[in-house]
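New to this. Please check this protein:
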Amino acid sequence: MKSEAAQHADFQSILRYAQCWEDADILMTGLDVGPGDVCISIASAGENSLSMLARGAKRVIAVDLNPAQLAALELRVAAFRTLSHAELLELIGSRPSARRQALYARCRPALSNGARSFWDARSSEVSRGIGAAGKFERYFALFRRWALPLVHGRRRVEQLLEPRDAAAQREFYDSRWDTGRWRLLFRAFFSEFVLGRFGRDPAFFRYVNESVADHLLGRVRHALGEMDPSSNPYVTWILMGSHQGPHREALPHALRPEAFETIRANLDRLEWHLEPLERLVDQGVIEGFHKANLSNIFEYISVENTTALLERLLAAAAVGGRLAYWNMMVPRRGAEYLPSRLRGLKDLSHRLFLEDKAFFYRDFVVEEVIR
């Protein structure tokens, strides 16, 4: 069965995301992943599925429509098995390294033929760090190297990433960062046309009815002016090209040192499938699952198909289980479509949304399976 998203977007030819651009800290809290849980997870580049292992999940079923995304996950699994924590960060690109080819060579025997062929053909991407290899990351690299310097130099970027209290951060953003030139540049570079051409697939905006750039500009103000950008791994990568800021290292959940050994010990609990979610339901692969990381898949499909997919998933879900997903531009809430099957955890969702370091999204939704 082919999903609606697969009918309109290209999920086969490129690595779209070389990292997960969704905050696993709020995801793990929202889902309350723990020992004994059977979890399903949209794979993307793999970090958020690995974060479930860090929380002790009994089984994690990662799924994606794009073989390139599963190759990214598979190389991370091989790196967790083979490398030290510091070496893993070098391979990802979180830290500087001149030996990424040698690190990859150590991981290579642990890859399947398909993943090995994928990464063998991308030697230059490996050398730059596998976390920079996706279309989305290349888009941010263009912004960092060519657009941002037109309005803010390196020194100003480093000042933005200085740790400071909330009031001082807000004052710095308003007085030093949020200039007219910044807003003009941002609206041009992050317009739907430019973002669709260089960052995401244009089909991902199929159900969008408002200005993408204006939405993102408002969210950037929250991330840079209201939160602490110096501890934000997503901001740090966009502005610095790694997870090493000028004053501190900012790592996503799965890459932190305290998660490393637990993930490594639990890797055999992870499996991955190149299938639509609907097919996994039909095959009984996810029967009885407890927790689901659904990324932002619903905003790529209609309300009717969202409802149909949720009905299929809920047929396999355990009562009391949880679903979590993001909305970036298109509002989707399963509890509104299927109120007899799902209960929205609105207070929890809103609290976590305010903490979301992956600032692109307008909403984070956590729902509980009730029957």
Q: What stands out?
A: The chain has two domains: 4-133+253-369, 135-240. Residues 4-9 have pLDDT under 50 and may be disordered. Residues 67-82 form the longest helix (16 residues). The chain is about 50% helix and 10% strand.
